[in-house]
């Protein structure tokens, strides 16, 4: 774990200094040598740097770090609650809007039919059936039955 913490600090510092120091002779070779020194089980470079610099700094700032973590947790909880409420309100509004629009379409489909409407539907059906199949039965208006 010490290696990864030291390596994270190294990567952060490297990102900031890479542009400025890349013109320095043997810069990239020195970087590789430093990473090997950090990794090596013989030199234990990461553990040396961690124990001399990182651990004392973290120990001194422990209370401040804990306060920042607590504040971040509180703010994230408040933010999630606010976003959750907005999401639920949007979903409820969408459901109500869909229900209102759907009710209009549904009522149009389920309206009561008069006998004249049913007669028109039958006439349309016979025209369609007649045009597709000449042997299809026809609706006879006088008897109210299909004629074959």
TrEMBL record:
Q: Name one Pfam family in it.
A: TB2_DP1_HVA22
Name the lineage: Eukaryota, Metazoa, Chordata, Craniata, Vertebrata
- Where mainly located? membrane
GO molecular function terms listed in the Swiss-Prot or TrEMBL record? microtubule binding; taste receptor binding
Domain of life according to the entry: Eukaryota
Q: Name one GO cellular component term.
A: endoplasmic reticulum tubular network
InterPro entries (UniProt xref): TB2_DP1_HVA22
Question: What is the name listed in the Swiss-Prot or TrEMBL entry for this protein?
Answer: Receptor expression-enhancing protein
Keyword Transmembrane tagged? yes
Q: What Gene Ontology terms for biological process does this UniProt record contain?
A: endoplasmic reticulum tubular network organization
Q: Which residues cross the membrane?
A: 25-43
Q: Where in the cell is it found?
A: Membrane
Please report the record's description of how this protein sits within the membrane.
Multi-pass membrane protein
* Family label: Belongs to the DP1 family.
Keywords assigned? Membrane, Transmembrane, Transmembrane helix
């Amino acid at each position: 774990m010490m290696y990864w913490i030291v390596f994270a600090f190294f990567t952060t510092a490297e990102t900031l200094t890479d542009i400025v120091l890349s013109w320095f002779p043997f810069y990239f070779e020195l970087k590789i040598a430093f990473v090997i020194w950090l990794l090596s089980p013989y030199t234990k470079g990461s553990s040396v740097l961690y124990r001399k610099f990182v651990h004392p700094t973290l120990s001194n700032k422990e209370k401040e770090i804990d306060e920042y973590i607590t504040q971040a947790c509180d703010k994230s909880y408040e933010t999630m609650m606010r976003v959750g409420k907005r999401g639920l309100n949007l979903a409820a509004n969408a459901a109500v809007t869909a229900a209102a629009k759907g009710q209009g379409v549904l009522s149009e489909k389920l309206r009561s039919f008069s006998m004249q409407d049913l007669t028109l539907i039958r006439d349309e059906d016979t025209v369609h059936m007649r045009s597709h199949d000449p042997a299809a039965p026809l609706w006879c208006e006088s008897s109210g039955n299909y004629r074959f």
